[in-house]
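1st attempt posting a full record on here, be nice pls
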Amino acid sequence: MPTVTPFLWFDTEARDAAEFYTSIFPNSGITKVTTRPDRSEDAVLTVEFELDGTRFIALNGGPQYSFTEAFSLSIDCRTQDEVDTYWATLTEGGEEGPCGWLKDRYGLSWQVVPEALPRLLADPDREKADRVFAAMMKMKKIDVAEIERAAEGVAAST
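the predicted structure (as tokens):
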């Protein structure tokens, strides 16, 4: 079966981005750096790296293209502490977005998703799921306690 590898286009920040991403996630690291043969040894062309076993390639392709929200990476978090940690780290130098989305300092979009969110949104009780959805729509970083209160029909905390 063929391998599918996310290939990320950067202007000139491929190595910096790969070093940043691999510093955040456990069991991660840079596996290969390729330099441009027509330039100095410092001219990085691609950086191959793994994030907890998932392979990525970062390319220094120039300024022609940039990331949009049409592509994002999703982080499945078990706890609010994980959500808080990934959110704080990835938004440093980046920007917060709605509903658990953010852009990091390189413009790459991420979704920081606590395990409770998709579970509550898929609840067979549609009124409960609708309350969770409405609560999520008012958030930037997802607050697990708040979506659980919404699921139970308890008013938002102040």
